Amino acid sequence: MVERTGAFWGRRHGKALRLGQRGLIDTVLPALTVDLTQPPADPRRLFPVAVDDVWVESGFGGGEHLLALAAARPTLGLIGAEPFVNGMAKALARLDGSPLAERVRLHPADSVELLDWLPEASIGRFYLLYPDPWPKKRHWKRRFVSPVNLDRIARVLRPGGEFRFASDWAPYVDWTLRRLLDHPAFAWTARTADDWRRPWDGWPGTRYEEKALREGRTPAYVIARRL
């Protein structure tokens, strides 16, 4: 099976945005968007304040995890990618007027272009949390985790950096682990059977996780270290 190398999302819109949400997309988002037309540089320079590291989250939903990280780590810069307009609007509502906006930058599309733009070995961590599992076999080519995208992630992570993946869909967890174990740039960090069953320290939870737990699914939390 050929694994897809392009876009990995389906629809970009849900219900119609309210007037205030449209205003945030028009006025706040442009100031926070990473300009991929500019030559790539140290991503720490994207922020108006000093940061000591930069982490990326791909498909941040409404921004719950992204903004919790920003609040918990005052010297961290974060770049969030999200193609879904309604999720972006939710995150912008929380960022508008917040000091966290100084340390958050956004990419209103999936993260492939962002990964290709970032310099080599320039970030410390990459998150992929509860991505669409595309459960039907004919849609597996849309799954974000593939050898090509793991190459992309490996290129931008510094040695010792981490790829963190969470999902409640067991077949996608297995899919991801197989590809990570086959990739020469990554090592799975689990040491015991429970390592991947427990959330990471400081994990704030997400609405997708809450739904999974309500519906009786068990999430998995995978950490792979860049060699």
UniProtKB/TrEMBL annotation:
<feature type="binding site">
    <location>
        <begin position="206"/>
        <end position="209"/>
    </location>
    <ligand>
        <name>substrate</name>
    </ligand>
</feature>
<comment type="function">
    <text>Catalyzes the formation of N(7)-methylguanine at position 46 (m7G46) in tRNA.</text>
</comment>
<feature type="binding site">
    <location>
        <position position="136"/>
    </location>
    <ligand>
        <name>substrate</name>
    </ligand>
</feature>
<comment type="pathway">
    <text>tRNA modification; N(7)-methylguanine-tRNA biosynthesis.</text>
</comment>
<feature type="binding site">
    <location>
        <position position="57"/>
    </location>
    <ligand>
        <name>S-adenosyl-L-methionine</name>
    </ligand>
</feature>
<keyword id="KW-0489">Methyltransferase</keyword>
<feature type="binding site">
    <location>
        <position position="82"/>
    </location>
    <ligand>
        <name>S-adenosyl-L-methionine</name>
    </ligand>
</feature>
<dbReference type="GO" id="GO:0008176">
    <property type="term" value="F:tRNA (guanine(46)-N7)-methyltransferase activity"/>
</dbReference>
<dbReference type="InterPro" id="IPR029063">
    <property type="entry name" value="SAM-dependent_MTases_sf"/>
</dbReference>
<feature type="binding site">
    <location>
        <position position="168"/>
    </location>
    <ligand>
        <name>substrate</name>
    </ligand>
</feature>
<comment type="similarity">
    <text>Belongs to the class I-like SAM-binding methyltransferase superfamily. TrmB family.</text>
</comment>
<keyword id="KW-0808">Transferase</keyword>
<protein>
    <recommendedName>
        <fullName>tRNA (guanine-N(7)-)-methyltransferase</fullName>
        <ecNumber>2.1.1.33</ecNumber>
    </recommendedName>
</protein>
<keyword id="KW-0949">S-adenosyl-L-methionine</keyword>
<dbReference type="InterPro" id="IPR003358">
    <property type="entry name" value="tRNA_(Gua-N-7)_MeTrfase_Trmb"/>
</dbReference>
<feature type="binding site">
    <location>
        <position position="110"/>
    </location>
    <ligand>
        <name>S-adenosyl-L-methionine</name>
    </ligand>
</feature>
<dbReference type="InterPro" id="IPR055361">
    <property type="entry name" value="tRNA_methyltr_TrmB_bact"/>
</dbReference>
<keyword id="KW-0819">tRNA processing</keyword>
<dbReference type="GO" id="GO:0043527">
    <property type="term" value="C:tRNA methyltransferase complex"/>
</dbReference>
<dbReference type="Pfam" id="PF02390">
    <property type="entry name" value="Methyltransf_4"/>
</dbReference>
<feature type="binding site">
    <location>
        <position position="132"/>
    </location>
    <ligand>
        <name>S-adenosyl-L-methionine</name>
    </ligand>
</feature>
